[in-house]
Write a structure and sequence with these properties.
Layout lengths: L6 H5 L4 H8 L7 H20 L17 H11 L16 H9 L3 H7 L19
Length: 132
């Protein structure tokens, strides 16, 4: 989803969308959107397998106060965090947009953090691209 908004893709957009759907190459769908859904499905499968989830030790003001689903999304977002100039020549969407774009349309994220409709990470109109 986000790669369609970057400079390089925009310049080569002719036939891009149709070609992407026809070929279905491994990188045809945005890695952030499909990757987080696939990883979360694996995480849910793991939870079903192990039963009670081990948590982190709970200490005031630490990650131990977060639920495991919240820790999953925090870890996913941390992988994309970086300090970068907004005017960088990088052709990809900014990391913040990639994180927000992949999570703001994901119901499991909304449930984990109790996001309300209209919040930044739960827009009134969302785009479901993953069929469950």
């Amino acid at each position: 989803m986000n790669d369609g908004c970057d400079t390089e893709t925009r310049q080569n957009a002719e036939n891009f969308w149709i070609h992407q759907l026809v070929t279905m190459h491994p990188f045809g769908l945005n890695d952030k959107v499909t990757g987080i859904h696939a990883a979360f499905r694996g995480f849910e499968h793991w939870k079903d397998t192990v039963g009670k989830e081990p948590g982190l030790p709970s200490t005031e003001g630490t990650l131990g106060n977060l639920k495991n689903d919240q820790l999953f999304f925090l870890a996913q977002s941390q992988m994309s965090c970086r300090k970068k100039c907004e005017y960088s020549p990088d052709v990809h969407s900014p990391a913040r947009s990639r994180i927000q774009g992949s999570l703001s349309n994901f119901s499991a994220f909304h449930n984990a953090f109790d996001c309300k409709v209209g919040d930044v990470y739960r827009p009134k109109e969302k785009c479901d691209v993953w069929i469950t």
